[in-house]
Specification:
single chain; alpha/beta; Rossmann fold; 3 domains; six-stranded parallel beta sheet; about 40% helix
Length: about 550
């Protein structure tokens, strides 16, 4: 006989869970007590949204569901941004949330919530356990649901009385996702389509990949001399050093890459959904019938034909599909080989350019230096904002798991994701990029980095405003600045106040020495980088955008 709280922890151990991220609460004290004697590493966070994003980061790195625990009511609602990110980005996640004692249900008790109603549109499954004996069953199903098909978040509500119940329950067993494999006829049809193509290109995206799957796809691209692009914020699926890599198709992509995809005669989309950002607001491919031969590979059959009618739809996980590619044979003559070389040259010209922007801090120069300084397995994180353009365009992502960034466009992700990543991968360098607005959405998790001696380097790019919104504001309502200006603290002093290392960077020449000192400090560090507000993107300024918009309105 064990308590419900102990059964929860036993079930997590059976799933191989090594890390739990949490903000403690009285609603699940029995679980916290059981964790006291467990082998699981517990990371105490400063806000539930940050804790959920840390769990999300752990899932992206391990391929197994990230686990987060939060208290009822405000704890659950604070966690909701992280749940939305996991849903939008197809990340397996299991959130355990406290719930009131069952005897008080439906009375509007302290912090009572209907989790099925609240999370129903963002979670794959929401369950409230009402019998401690069924805890192993429900946790097992939660892990299955989180990992299978299109991965995503699951919510498990834990009533206080159930956690204190004594129950005799079956021993929990480890869950493995059931892979969906492509059929032999589908792979044969894919080979026929490739042999008939003149201008093919592959686009990799989504989740469900592994280091092995990425390596298998790289070998396939080499045998077929196939150009490969990565979808929005999924650059880590194909090495930027590979001679077949053609770049990222995301926000403000290389115009030559966009044209290459538009003019292709076969698109092999693997794992991704080609949603609004990578599809260039759904303008890259005709809906519902793309003009190109369109091969779509996805783990969820509901995604096949949802937006784009595929010439060939393949219901398979990326890992299973990549393994099946070994059976395909390239044509004797590959007519697109020169195009692959041209695609690579276009990418390098885009990646290695050093556009001059207003101000003394030239971000392209800083990124070029980092491109040579960062280890190949360094983990790079970011949230959302125009600052993210710099690492996305000018760094190279060289290995699986080296990029943690939200396709959902959520601000505040990069800082906690970096903390979570460093907890899971303590021996890898972790660098978080954030804008001034983005950082302070979850900047309190710098305290978590200090508490656990996590020497993450946070590069805070400060232009004194919500830059992306200001950019759109100048485009739509030129000269009418409203609600986008920010007055920021001294972020270097902020780092020191928490017990970390802080540096102020105002010029290009100051960046590299400051970064090296941050590494040498062996502490969590913030590089407070001041960028000219005019430098809104690598290719234009606020003034130019405003003047163009004003001219268009005349």
């Amino acid at each position: 006989m064990k308590t419900g709280g102990q059964l929860i922890v036993d079930s997590l151990i059976a799933q191989g869970v090594e890390h739990v991220f949490c903000v403690p609460g009285e609603s699940y004290l029995a679980v916290l007590d059981a964790l006291h004697d467990a082998s699981i590493n517990v990371t105490v966070c400063r806000q539930e949204g940050g804790a959920t994003m840390m769990a999300d980061a752990s899932a992206r790195l391990t391929g197994r569901p990230g686990v987060v625990m939060v208290t009822r009511g405000p704890g659950a609602t604070n966690a909701s941004p992280g749940i939305h990110i996991a849903e939008h980005d197809s990340v397996p996640l299991v959130m355990f949330v406290g719930q009131i004692d069952g005897s008080m249900r439906h009375r509007g008790a302290f912090q009572e919530m209907d989790y099925r109603a609240f999370f129903g549109s963002t979670a794959k499954w929401v369950v409230e356990i009402d019998d401690a004996a069924r805890i192993p069953e429900h946790v097992s199903r939660a892990f299955h649901v989180a990992m299978q098909g299109r991965p995503g978040p699951v919510i498990v509500a834990l009533p206080e009385d159930v956690l204190s119940q004594m129950a005799d329950a079956p021993q929990a067993k480890r869950v493995e996702p059931v892979q969906t494999w492509p059929g032999l006829t589908q792979m044969a049809e894919l080979q026929k389509l490739l042999w008939a193509a003149e201008r093919p290109i592959a686009i990799l995206g989504g989740s469900g990949w592994s280091e092995k799957a990425c390596a298998s796809f790289a070998r396939f691209s080499e045998r077929f001399e196939l150009p490969v692009a990565c979808s929005f914020r999924r650059q880590m699926l194909f090495s930027g050093d590979h001679p077949n890599y053609a770049g990222e198709i995301g926000i403000a992509p290389n115009p030559k890459l966009r044209a290459r995809i538009d003019n292709s005669d076969l698109v092999l989309l693997v794992g991704g959904r080609m949603a609004e950002m990578p599809s260039q607001s759904y303008e890259l491919f005709s809906i519902p019938y793309p003009k190109q031969t369109f091969v779509h590979v996805h783990a969820d059959s509901n995604e096949l034909g949802r937006v784009y009618h595929p010439t060939l739809g393949i219901h398979a996980s990326p890992a299973a599909f990549a393994a099946s590619l070994e059976s395909l044979q390239p044509p004797q003559r590959i007519p697109w080989a020169q195009q692959t070389a041209e695609a690579r040259a276009d990418y390098l010209a885009w990646n290695e350019a050093k556009p001059i922007i207003p101000g003394d801090l030239q971000m392209a120069e800083c990124m070029a230096w980092l491109r040579g300084r960062l280890p190949a397995d360094a983990i790079i994180t970011n949230g959302a904002g125009n600052y993210a353009t710099w690492p996305a365009r000018f760094l190279k992502y060289r290995s699986f798991g080296c990029q943690l960034a939200p396709c959902s466009g959520s601000m505040g992700y990069g800082a906690p994701a970096a903390v979570g990543a460093k907890r899971v991968e303590p021996d890898r360098m972790v660098v978080a990029f954030a804008g001034d607005g983005c950082f302070l959405m979850n900047g309190q998790e710098f305290a978590t980095a200090v508490q656990y001696d996590l020497n993450v380097i946070f590069v805070v790019v400060d232009n004194g405003m919500y830059g992306t919104i200001r950019m759109h504001q100048e485009r739509e309502f030129p000269g009418r600045v409203s609600a986008t200006m920010l007055k920021n603290p001294d972020f270097a002093a902020y780092a020191r106040a928490f017990g970390g290392h802080g540096e102020t960077v105002r010029t290009t020449a100051e960046f590299a020495p400051a970064f090296e000192r941050a590494i040498a400090s062996n502490k969590p560090a913030i590089l407070h980088c001041f960028i000219d507000p005019e430098a809104i993107t690598p290719g234009t300024t606020l003034t130019k955008m405003r003047e163009a918009a004003q001219a268009a309105k005349k």
